[in-house]
Write a structure and sequence with these properties.
Layout (H helix, E strand, L loop, with lengths): L2 E15 L7 E15 L3 E5 L6 H8 L7 E6 L2 E2 L5 H7 L3 E4 L13 H11 L8 H11 L16 H13 L5 E5 L7 H18 L2 E6 L2 H7 L2 E6 L2 E7 H6 L4 H8 L40 H5 L5 E2 L5 E2 L8
Parallel strand pairs: 3-8, 3-9, 6-7, 7-8
Antiparallel strand pairs: 1-2, 1-4, 4-5, 9-10, 10-12, 11-12
The structure holds iron/sulfur cluster.
GO molecular function: ATP binding; ATP hydrolysis activity
InterPro entries: AAA+_ATPase, ABC_transp_ATP-bind, ABC_transporter-like_ATP-bd, ABC_transporter-like_CS, Oligopep_ABC_C, P-loop_NTPase
Family: Belongs to the ABC transporter superfamily.
């Protein structure tokens, strides 16, 4: 298989000082042994509630955060073992788009400059071609190139996200982490941005890790889906399989919360008990056991291991133990 990205047993722990234990160190396990692969030119959707570790995964893959364990192999190279120089050379190839386009755009620069700046820095095209290159990228992202001398505040939220996408695309990346890129936008604009990302993917053979708390958003763009709960990937597989038959009780609850287009369609909403436990003090055994209506004795004691139920559909739940 042509995997552009292989993530193996990735861990990211943050130290916290515990005053109870006389200042000895304790850890928040924000990402606690997560593994997955992404095929070139495809999209993996990463879903879960806020605080489940999905954003930390995105940033640790890009080495914007140091890892605490595991490996990130990008195009055959271990990203966290690269020298500073090699990492700098790789940077344009691995990019990120954020949720809030406004705060990531400098208010004092016209958008043509914003897009051109990084292109110049990374010497993507010769100087004399810079302007026409920026124009072309803007047009590809649905922006009019004669607006290159306007400032970010003169654009709407959706257009600002297009500017961020253009700035990223201008670096000629292979892989882009899209971190909740449409969550701040109106629903009608969300679809436009998702369609733009899909078109660009096809045209430029891009690979995405698309992070969202919203399953209905990832449905339209993902080929595979990973579901996160408290730093653990509880279910992973082909989008079609997961949408047809979600297996993990947490995934089922997420699905039951998606509004159905047909109000007469039968659906039993699963209401999760309680709130997400503190990641600093997660439940023993299966981290979901405090909220799971299927909880068994074993769930409180033993951490469920990943089980492949077929076609690479992986579930971490004692209900699906192959033993
Ligand atoms: Fe529920 Fe047990 Fe499965 Fe965890 S392992 S999701 S508690 S049934």
């Amino acid at each position: 298989e042509d995997y552009i990205l292989e993530v193996r047993d990735l861990k990211k722990y943050y130290p916290i000082k515990s005053s109870v234990l006389g200042g000895s160190k304790n850890y928040v396990k924000a990402v606690d042994g997560v593994s997955f692969n992404i095929k070139r030119g495809t999209t993996m959707g990463l879903v879960g509630e806020s605080g489940c570790g999905k954003t930390t995964i995105g940033r640790t893959i890009l080495k914007l955060h140091e890892k605490s364990g595991g490996e990130v192999i990008f195009n055959g190279q271990d990203v966290h073992k690269l020298s500073k120089k090699a990492l700098r050379a790789l940077r344009p190839k691995m990019q990120i788009i954020f949720q809030d386009p406004y705060s990531s755009l400098s208010p004092r620069l016209p958008v043509g400059e914003i897009i051109g700046e990084a292109v110049r820095q990374h010497k993507i095209v010769p100087k004399e071609e810079l302007n026409s290159y920026v124009d072309k990228i803007m047009e590809s992202c649905g922006l009019q190139s004669f607006h290159a001398d306007r400032y970010p505040h003169e654009f709407s939220g959706g257009q600002r996200q297009r500017i961020c996408i253009a700035r990223t695309l201008a670096l000629n990346p292979d892989f882009v982490v899209c971190d909740e890129p449409v969550s701040a936008l109106d629903v009608s604009i969300q679809a436009q941005i998702i369609n733009l990302l899909k078109d660009l993917q096809k045209e430029y053979n891009l690979t995405y890790l698309f992070i969202s708390h919203d399953l209905s958003v990832v449905e339209h763009i993902s080929d595979t889906i990973g579901v996160m709960y408290l730093g653990t990937m509880v279910e992973y597989g082909d989008k079609v399989d997961i949408f047809k038959e979600p297996l993990h009780p947490y995934t089922k609850a997420l699905f039951s919360a998606i509004p159905m287009p047909d109000p007469h369609a039968k659906k039993n909403r699963i209401i999760l008990q309680g709130s997400i436990p503190s990641p600093a003090n997660p439940p023993s055994g299966c981290k979901f056991h405090t909220r799971c209506s299927h909880c068994m004795d074993i769930c409180k004691k033993e951490v469920p291991q990943p089980n492949d139920v077929g076609n690479g559909h992986i579930v971490r739940c004692h209900l699906y133990n192959s033993k």
